[in-house]
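Problem 3 from the worked examples.
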Amino acid sequence: MKYLAIDNGGTFIKYAVMNDLGTILEKGKEPTPDKKKTAEDYFNVLDQIVLPRRHDIGGIAFSTPGQVDVDTGFLHTAGGLVYLMGLNLCEEIQKRYGLPSSVDNDAKCAAMAEQWNGSLKGVRNGAVIVLGTGVGMGLIIDGKLYRGSNYTAGEISFINLDLDNPKHSESYMAVTGSSLALGRTYAKETGIDPSEIDGVRMFELINQGEETACKVLRNYVKKLAGSIYNFQTLLDLEVIAIGGGISQQPILLEEIRKEMDYLFEAHPSAAYGMAVKKPKITACEFYNDSNLRGALYHFLNRK
């Protein structure tokens, strides 16, 4: 049986036709309608993805940002896709396409994918941190996905990094920890137009050793590693896997590990033995495909 997995990203709606084993048979992406658009604009894009494949698939598995009621398919929030907030996505899919569906939070999907057959396979306590248009975390505690009391466990985009300015979006991890923060900060530092720098170009500059780009990466990693350190004191994880497109850049993982080493070695109790143990930092095995694979895993296990 074939299934369609769809990842509602802030920049692109990514999709893949997959089999029961999670093998990707076909994949692609379409631009995500921006915040000024409507739910109907979103479904117009979805039509382009679903309708040509409608009679060849046994269902649709969604990964999406925000607070998701996985039992009903209701989206309490939807991240940057604000036009989907308050929608029951599964009911809408049944009505429009006559297909069964499931939906789960994107970072939780990534964690399920990596636990299924990736970097968290066999790990009792671990996490995936997805660095994309926003930032998300999927938690595996005692071998099971942890959702929290209101389906919001791991919504680390809401972590406040500047308590003196709680009304500013830049005070939150959603902005400062997203992959977009690198290019945005570089543009501000150099005075170039932000449209001239994307993730690919940013890492070209970093890997070439361009001074400002490398400084921006170091500052970005410093904040990210500081947050990871704080998560570890609370959760005591074995493995933390980094996901999102930029996780494919070896220098990112190298810098995170380097900063984590520093934080653990600099602690005043380090000389006497740290009570908090440093987790293994690795990349998601499936990189940008983790959300799609995890969405399918969720669909198959619900069915």
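Problem 4, a separate protein:
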Amino acid sequence: MTAPTPLSSLSSALADIVARTAPSVVSVHSQRSRATGFAWKPGLIVTADEALADEGAVEIGLADGSTAAATIAGRDHTTDIALLRVDAAVAPVKLAATVPPLGALSVVVATNRETPSAALGMVSASSKSWRSLRGGDIDARIELDVRLHGSQQGGLALDASGEAFGMAVLGPRRVLVIPATTIERVAAQLEARGRIARGYLGLGLQPVRLDDGVGAMVMNVDKAGPSAAAGIRQGDVIVAVNGQKLSGVRALARTLGPSSVGTVVDVAVRRGGEPASFKVTVVERPEA
């Protein structure tokens, strides 16, 4: 018998990793959208929020070829995580709170056209936490040098030992991984509350250019919101928050994450050219 070569040994090991993980991976159908998901807990499926249709029925395709109806338990656009409830027996996967090093091999186990699929790639970026363009806190920036179809996003990203370190999603011109730590944090909140708490000042803002920087003009004020209670009025121009000069309206919005609810912020404004300051207690954003 011919002795196994290093390459054949690697091939067998990867095939075994995929075979062990595939039963936890499902296809997700919502209207015309096709994606992948995986069992996070019994009866709970995590998938990519961006791949999930905004309305309509959701169906899960199981590894044995059967299907089951699912409902949306909650979704968070900012971290691209959605949680589905389904009455089907799918073995949950154990997520590993690890960040693979740059250059490590990774296998994405997903579905493509409703059948199991796998893609092999390399970790092309591995660095510290970051904030998404939609304001979500992602615990590590992980990019994969791998090609995925749209129906494969939401699949599990595994390291060479078979540990699932996150969910693969399609970012702009690259494949990103939402790390396990972020999934555990966000999915737990979605399971408990159906939504992620976001801070709310009760202001409609418009960026304006000032002689000494950037400001945000108050275009409207929610009369029932915290800024109105603090005394901020339409026409005020916000120039700083907590002593930090404003860098833009989007930057201000990104500070209003879950941890901001209940905090008191010092808002510096210009009113009729004169400086003024208000203490605003951040509240939870009302449901739309």
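Solution to problem 4. The mean pLDDT is 93. The CA atoms of residues 1 and 8 lie 14 Å apart.
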